[in-house]
Amino acid sequence: MSRINDRPLVLCVGGHDPSGGAGILADAEAVRAAGAFPVTVISALTEQNTCGLSRVYPQAPGHVAGQCRALLRDCIPGALKIGMIGSAPLIDLLGTLIDENPDLPVVLDPVLGSGAGQRVADAAMLDRLRGGLIRRSTLVTPNLPEAQTLTGALGPSDCATRLLSLGASWVLITGTHDDTPDVTNWLFNAEGLQQRLDWPRLAGEYHGSGCTLASAIAARLALGAPMPEAVAEAQAYTWESLDRALRTGRCQLTPNRLYALDP
User: Fold this and answer.
1) Which residues contact 5 (CB under 8 A, 6 or more apart)?
2) Which residue(s) pair with 186 in the sheet?
3) Residues near 85 by beta carbon (within 8 Å), at least 6 away in sequence
4) For the whole model, what pTM was predicted?
5) What's 143's DSSP letter?
6) 232, 197 in Cβ contact below 8 A?
7) How far apart are CA 158 and CA 117, in angstroms?
8) Across-strand partners of 74?
9) Largest interatomic CA distance in the chain
10) pLDDT tens profile 145-176
């Protein structure tokens, strides 16, 4: 006998990473692991593996718009997660789509570079992120170097203050790129620091941790969790997926987002 199992949807817009470490595949796994269901639109194709990123091929804005609107005519996502965008015109398009769906929570992972350090955002994209997309976001999830690039500030608190002044409702700044014994992540809103969580820093380098975290948060928001709870639960899940990471290539490790399926 067939059974209908309705569950919240998350619309994920981001790049395709052929290695499966980051991008849309990471988004889909993290959303599914949380108990929600991903619907996906690819904003850019990439030449990429666990050792780094070689090329980015942004998709045509009209194609991305058509795919998003086709999905939105058919279903009602509980959240929108945006990762790698690929080009400045796509930022404008996503801003329009958000305005057309004002009740949709938006989690923006401002991907400015690959995990191996290659830049994927030019000056025009940075300007449009600051001027358009951040103010439309419910939550922005930069690591500290990305937050510094976006704001010109140095510390997490100052970076968050500037991102909030650009219009973001919440800001989560992650400390994954520090060299401290623990990874410290800070969650801010207009009232200041709301949550600070410390996680033991794992040995090795990982490909797709930011995608995993942002998508895991978006899924929990779609499931109805309040922001601090969604952020804390997603961090615990992401840390576990890194602790159980897979060796799929020669360089960075791949988060094991579906570790619950392991024998």
Assistant:
1) none
2) 173, 196
3) 13, 14, 43, 44, 58, 91, 94, 111, 121, 125
4) 0.96
5) B
6) yes
7) 24
8) none
9) 58
10) 999 999 999 999 999 999 999 999 999 999 98
